[in-house]
Design brief:
The complex is a heterodimer of chains A (217) and B (1087).
Chain A: E1 13-20, H1 26-35, E2 48-57, E3 60-69, H2 76-79, E4 88-94, H3 98-102, H4 104-115, E5 124-129, H5 140-151, E6 155-157, H6 166-179, H7 184-196
Parallel strand pairs in A: 1-3, 1-4, 4-5, 5-6
Antiparallel strand pairs in A: 2-3
Chain B: H1 2-33, E1 36-37, H2 41-55, H3 60-63, H4 72-79, H5 83-97, H6 107-122, H7 152-159, H8 163-172, H9 174-177, H10 187-196, H11 198-201, E2 205-206, H12 210-215, H13 220-230, H14 253-272, E3 279-289, E4 298-306, E5 311-317, H15 318-321, H16 326-332, H17 342-347, E6 349-352, E7 356-363, E8 370-376, E9 385-387, H18 392-404, E10 408-411, E11 415-417, E12 421-423, H19 432-442, E13 452-458, H20 459-468, H21 475-479, H22 483-507, H23 514-524, H24 528-565, H25 585-591, H26 603-613, H27 620-628, H28 637-685, H29 695-704, H30 718-721, H31 728-765, H32 771-794, H33 798-812, H34 819-840, H35 864-882, H36 893-909, H37 919-930, H38 933-947, H39 957-972, H40 974-982, H41 993-997, H42 1006-1022, H43 1027-1038, H44 1040-1045, H45 1050-1060, H46 1066-1085
Parallel strand pairs in B: 1-2
Antiparallel strand pairs in B: 3-4, 3-9, 4-5, 5-6, 7-8, 7-13, 8-9, 10-13, 11-12
The chains are: A alpha/beta (217), B alpha+beta (1087).
Amino acid sequence: MKNKTILVKQNPILKVVILGNSNVGKSCLMNRFVSNSFSDHTLHTLGVEFLQKELNVNGIVYTLQIWDTAGQERFRTLRTPFYRGTDICLLTFAVDDVQSFKTVDSWKKEFLQYSRTTDANFPFLVVATKVDLENRVVSKDEANKWCSEYLSAPYVETSSKTDMNIETAFTLAVEIWASTERPSELKISHTNLVKLSRPINGSAACPTAEIVSPKCC
Amino acid sequence: MMDSNNTSKKFKEQLIKNVKKEVKQIMEEAVTRKFVHEESGSITSLCAAVEACLSQGLRRRALGLFKTSSTTALLHKMAKNFEPASIISQKVQEMENTDPNNSDSCATRAASVNSTLTSSITLPNVHPPPLTKKNSAGSGLGPASITLPKYLWIRLALFEKLLAVIIDHLVQNCSKYYEKDSLVADPDYGSILSSLLVGPCALDYSRTKSHDQFWTDPPADELVQRHRISSGYHTSPPCRTPINYRRNLHATSNDDNQRQTPISAKDYVESLHQNNRVTLLYGKNNVLVLPKDVTEPMAGYLSLHQTVSSLIIKWTPNQLMNCHSPGTNQNDHPEIDASDKSQYWDYAMNVNVDEIVYVHCHQQGNDNGGTIVLVAQDGVQQPPIHFPQGGHLLAFLTCLENGLLPHGQLDPPLWPQRGKGKVFPKLRRKGRSQIQDISNDLSSNTEESRDYVFQIISKARHEEFLSKGEEILDSKIWSMPSAANNMLNRVRGHLESSSTNSSTSTSSSLDPVASPLLINIQNTSKDTGDSLQILCETMKKQIISRAFYGWLAYCRHLTTVRTHLSGLVNTVIIDSNDAETGLTKEKWCSFKNDSNLVNDDTKLEIFRLTYFGGVQHDIRKEVWPFLLGHYKFGSTVEERNAVDLHCKQEYETTMSEWMAVEAIIRQKDRETMAANLAKLSSESTSGGDAPPPTPNTSKVLSQELSNDVFEDNINFSSDEDNPPVVDDTQLEHNVEICDNPTNQINTKKNIENIPKEIDCDKKSLSSDEGLGKDEVTEKDMTIKKNTSEDTSLYCPTSVIVTTNISQEKAMDNPNDENDKIDSKVNNNTSKLAVDDNEGTGGSNHEQRSACISPASSQGGIYPVELVENFGLNVHRIDKDVQRCDRNYPYFTLENLDKLRNIICTYVWDHLEMGYMQGMCDLVAPLLVILDDETLSYSCFCLLMERMSANFPHSGGAMDTHFANMRSLVQILDSEMFELMHENGDFTHFYFCYRWFLLDFKRELLYDDVFTVWETIWAAKEMSSSHFVLFFALALVETYRDIILANHMDFTDIIKFFNEMAEHHDAKTVLSLARNLVLQLQTLIENK
């Protein structure tokens, strides 16, 4: 006698914001990841755009809510309201644009200021884009070193055009998120979600997954 | 003979075409979602198309396949000598052997089949393949019985990625299985078929991630399609709630009746689709319910849904569940016509658990199922829900209990028992012995009591009760399962309900008059005769006061409309008579007199035609300058030519000004580029031994370059936190050592490069050639690259870097006492000036005396700030122009250059405003239509008079737009407004941002953009200078039902409209927008 309960998983939802200078390829990064497509001539983003995608990291399916932002400074008032509640922040720069690399730090600062995160270990990931280009001016060593020493953020090199490391980058970002210590309230709410997403099979009388609430134990 | 050949050929063609279409559909689905769900309707369609191809010309007789019309037997035949086929064949047999009638085992599956059913119906179906109508593999997808999906083997082969291989094998060995003239045996079609399927076979099909993936994130298209299912029950067009006066009023009962059907229909569709907010906690089919006025219990689908705010219990009769599969409903109730379905909506239950206080459970005998009665706050009982046997009652309660957490609970709680999950609580409290006595009497065959009353306690309500001091929550109540106790509960329920009812009505703020009276009633209610009379009085007063407040609300509402919105529309309503045809070529010609003069009198008529019907495409080029105000109506040809000439002169003058500056910028860029390259190459040659790029060096560098993004972003400028430490001595040291050689090199290079530069500038001044310029620039770059690489061989790389910095330093401090460097810079620039003179000598330069230092005659020395500021803008413009509408054929490199020139010229003239992302989008359509740089520039300037205020930092127009949108939605669609209020963020209307910024340019296809833009321009004269608002509102209204039905929040709506971009039906939206203007005009007019 099997149960008749329909269990519906609810994936943990992670909000990911992609930041970086104009024309470093933020939208391309997102489009490659979400729809596996690439266009040489993506229009510049105005305001914010938003796509969603499931990603399986170490057996847990996460729903990534990816927010693509406009790179021009002038649009700051438009993008900063969306920083709040972000779980992961991708800081991007293009390897053929030294300026974009230099502003990575400013982006991080802007993010920290407007996201109002209290988390000292907020998960950042620095993503170098366009590594397929031949005229790169930011070397891997330089960027890597600077990221680890100064930003203490992991660094990954990608190319949306050749689909290099795109999924890896997002997977890495989720892993960083999963491994960082964060304020307890967050942990708890996510624990709940994770538990829900795994139905406990085999118990005949009680088919539903139990919600592990902080109260029990 | 020929004839039959032809028809058969046509038929084959059609078959292949179908396959192609389905493959395309599935590939598109895969691209947009990166996976395709196994139960996706497109897979079924594809399989059907493949099956049709395979069935055609199959040698059934020879193969002994006459018994079945499906191709499954063919697969089994192939399996004997083809490995992939045998794998699939085995799988098919396995699946067929599992007992399909074991419905009990897979309720989950049943439900999912059910939901797939609805979704696949929404997808466009292929023409039913002629040979597969009676396909044995699939029929009757009823919710109760499990059936294997259609085209099972093709499906499995596709999932296993073997379909293409199998078909290929068939094609290779076609003589064995197929007639000569069959599709598979056809030399062309056969291979086309197998190669078509390679793509779908490479996809990943998901099954395990089913429910959430399939339902939580439906793309916009699917939402639109789902809406079409339920909209069958809608009687109303999207714009059906034009002016809603019932803002604060309770809906009348009449309204309720009208709405019941559509709302339940919507709910029904929703109840099958889990989405972000509604989680399906429990689902069970064939649960019996005995609705009112029905003699026999009806079977239906019971489900428990969790929304953000509450739990909902739903029960939908089977008759409704089947209504989308006409094949099955006759099995259940053949006598019921499909049109009678609506009556079942009355039986469907939709209970909010918040309103439920007690859950009565009755179990009959030993595991014979059980019955649940839900008792609401007001004491009203829902029809009993009877569960079939098998512990479903307990399962339901368990889910309910889980769903109630953390804010509520069942009292008494279910008893967790190790290994068995939850069981009914053992009753140990007061009166237990008594209960056992009773239960022993009543049901002697069990020891545990069979009937329970659970109370649903929500924290909020609990506290409310406690504060009232009501002690009816006596723990004894639930422990007495007898009928008498039920009675008691019911009585209490009624008492409560009367009190809650009165309190709700008094608290509704509309009854200040009535409430004292009600209190009065309660006080004197002992005297029943009096109280009845008072009750009548109260009701009378309530009715009157309601009417009064309704009227008051309406008046206030209209005042709001008049004060806040009357400015949005023109007061004069213009008739649309005969104007729907738009401004055609004939009409346009008829407006012009012999001397090509467009009379001022006809101006209004031209605007009217444009507003209601748009402009014919061929004459847009001629008409747009008038619409935008570049030409005056009534101006003569000579006057217009003069305007053009004047514009051209100004345009060219401005261009020559900024191009001179651009040359300087280019030069600087090249030096920076060389420096960067040199730095990089030095790093790579030195094998990573180069000094680590500490933050400090980076900061020095970032000072040297203008900051692209954070130029006015002092807040987080890193320099504040850690002042950069520059080793001055070392720097100077380097300069001293290396200054001489570099200086020489630089000067030499300058001499080489500048003439070229000027040459090409001259070319582009003559307005047509950008291509050559690019080439030259590239050449320059390579030369430069080479030289810099050469240099790095001879002298330390720091040379270039330091020189650069020193130069930069000189630029930063023009009054620097470092004469040597200063003179060098002057030297360079004067050279440039001289060359410039030679190159452009004679052309009519006009000096911008404010910017150009008087020392130079032409293009000479510019203030550093000006060069930097413009340089910053040029870089941004270049980045954006390069990627502007490249998919639109007009934008070749040559035309992109025109685009760039227009924007640069505009920015040069408005340097304080600077370049803003989005300008490209505004110029592009103008350039496409006018195809003339000067004219486009002039029109763009005129357009920007209105648009520039939308951009950030240059006027608060966007906030005004949002505020107006808010008011409009409030007035014109109160339901929508409520939804927005629920999701606070929503009210910011961010999702409209791009709409207003670009006049919907990115939301629509190019052809539609033209029409919409014209209408907006014409609307200023015809109906409203804020027509954009109404177009935006029309877009929202077009999808209002979907937005409401899916209860979209802020992020959903952003995502929805992002995805819907370029998918709108512009014509419909436009006419809706015109209607909305008209509605508001009428509302204001009828004072």
